[in-house]
Amino acid sequence: MYRYREKREHKRIEKPYMARLRIKQYEGLEISSAEWDIVALKDLSAGGALFYYSKYLGLGSLLDLKIDVSTATPTVRCAGKVTRIEQSLAHSLIRIATEFTEIDEHVKEMMNTTIEKALEQANKTSVS
User: Fold this and answer.
1) Phi and psi dihedrals of 50, rounded to 5?
2) Domain ranges, ordered by start, for the chain
3) What is the pTM of this model?
4) What's the Cα-to-Cα distance from 5 to each of 2, 27, 84, rounded to whole Å?
5) Which CATH number describes the domain made up of 17-127?
6) What letters, b where the CB count within 10 A reaches 16 and e where it falls short, cover 20-33?
7) What is the dihedral of CA 77, 81, 87, 92, to 10 degrees?
8) Alpha-carbon distance 56 to 2, whole Å?
9) Which of 111, 101, 105, 89 shows the shortest CA–CA distance to 41?
10) With left for phi above 0 and alpha for psi between -120 and 50, is residue 90 left, alpha or beta?
């Protein structure tokens, strides 16, 4: 019997969260963005996020992110790196996976706790 082993270090929740992003300015970047774009995250963990975006971002692009994890916690500010890009032929949006590269450890712990509580709540709701 085949057993899939989870490679992710952090629990991931498939729930939409609102986030703002912009291309992070760094040396060697020809085009950067001063404007923040709003995206809905498809899923989120303390290690990264997945979202659909209307603009093409190159693999390895660096992003500044502001994520609203819950109304009870402050907006999470972190940086991420694009690790996967999937272009869909069905629509014009691009599926982008990003790994958080700059995030405070206490923020990571807060995100883990918030996500675990949301997953527990979702499991209780689906069992009822």
Assistant:
1) -125, 135
2) 17-127
3) 0.81
4) 10, 38, 20
5) 2.40.10.220
6) bbebbeeeeeeeee
7) 30
8) 36
9) 111
10) alpha
Retrieve residue 128's tokens: 């009822």
DSSP element (H, E) containing 76? strand 76-87
pLDDT of residue 7: 58
Over range 94-105, report the average pLDDT.
Answer: 94
Residue burial 92-106, b: 16+ Cβ < 10 Å; e: rest:
eebebbbebeebeee
Q: What is the pLDDT of residue 53?
A: 92
pLDDT reported for residue 87: 87
Give the confidence band of 90 by pLDDT, cuts at 50, 70, 90: confident
Main-chain phi, psi angles of 27, to 5 degrees: -60, 135
Element of type H or E holding 72: none
Q: Give the distance, in angstroms, between the CA of residue 26 and the centroid of all CA atoms in the same chain.
A: 20
Q: Which two tokens stand for residue 21?
A: 């992003």
